[in-house]
Amino acid sequence: MSLQLHNTLHGKKEVFEPLNPSRVTMYVCGPTVYNYIHIGNARPAVVFDVLNRVLKQHYPNVIYARNITDIDDKIIAAAQENSEDIAVLAKRFSDAYHDDLKALYNEEPTLEPLATDNIDEMISMIESLIERGHAYEAEGHVLFHIPSNDNYGALSKRSLDDMIAGARVEVAPYKKHPADFIMWKPSDDNVPGWDSPWGRGRPGWHIECSAMIRKHLGGTIDIHGGGQDLTFPHHENELAQGSCCADNEQYARYWVHNGYITIDEEKMSKSIGNVRQVHALLKDHDGEVLRLALLSTHYRSPLNWSEDLIVQARNRLDSIYQALRSCDHEAADITAIDAKVQDALEDDLNTPLAISALHECARQLNKSTDLKEKTELKAKIINSGYLLGLLQRDADVYFKGSSPDNGLDETTINNLLAERDAAKLAKNYARADEIRNELTAANIELEDTKDGTRWRYAS
Ligand SMILES: [Zn+2]
After folding, report:
1. What is the CATH number of domain 285-398?
2. Which of 140, 204, 276, 418 is the most buried (most CB within 10 A)?
3. 186-201 pLDDT, tens per residue?
4. What's the whole-model pTM score?
């Protein structure tokens, strides 16, 4: 089976055929670093991390770029509010972003360009758009002129009338068309700015991505990804800039968008007070559990985030790790992937089906009595889990790693277990029971096996 992806541009699933199989390119819009990321921002990072793993399995050279927007009016406003330097604030939140993504078991992208490192490319792209009659300067601003591009609206399937209706509120007087969008704007002395042919100013958000793609990946990329909320206007505008700055330029071959996240069936919003920041979730939950929760729904479907979802994810991960832990033998030295996991992922990244297939492998592992079969199943679970970014830890580390705050530490637990073993040997069952009760009260679950007692932090 070959990889199929849903392409927003054509509104259907298509077989993925890269322009150049020896250099596959993917660009995903990264964060604007003015705050901690919430679980909705983490979803594309995890989804495209899985896609990157699947692509790398098929192609030897995958270049995955995910940008950091480190200049934006939201960053300027947040820095002013804190009386903090803009660059310091942007660095602080981009570090936090990296920490959060690492804790969710994401691999690093191949490239992570910063907007402020690519201003020259943005300026030269804007210049060529002006030259080609797609953009104009007005009062220190440079705007993209939408009627100059016949294909505008092709990605988001919007007509010019819809866009005029959407833009009716407060149309700036210097706009030739109400839907024209800003690529460059003037900066006064209080905000960061760069010299340009149009005076000191700074880029708009859309031009950042188009220019970074052109510089780092080339004229046409294979996959452009991001959240569904970016389709309009951000991606539509990126497409307009990228396809109009050179002759016959195809900007991106496959546009892949992930769906929204709701919180307990409600829209996530500051005003409702239900924003779930990743760094806060990680204080209470294991990152791998959160990752499985994010992948438990197909990426294009809306995902409803709730405590129940996290509990279900933890139970599923527990049961697979439990199967791995109960097989005392090393995994076989094979690279095979479970065929059902592979097929599910190649069918437009059907992660819920892939997770069910992993679960099925774990059930077989629990049932099997054949040593060769067991070690092969164990290897298949681990190899297939890698494609999802799951199950790469030692099962013991997984069970012991998710210590709740104020819980007993590992050394204390091991000392108590040693004392319990000694008590049992001395036939002091009262003391042995007392220790078990003490551990149960501290939320530690014990499992007595022929090889000794195993323990884990209970959910
Ligand atoms: Zn972008």
Report:
1. 1.20.120.640
2. 204
3. 999 989 999 999 999 9
4. 0.90
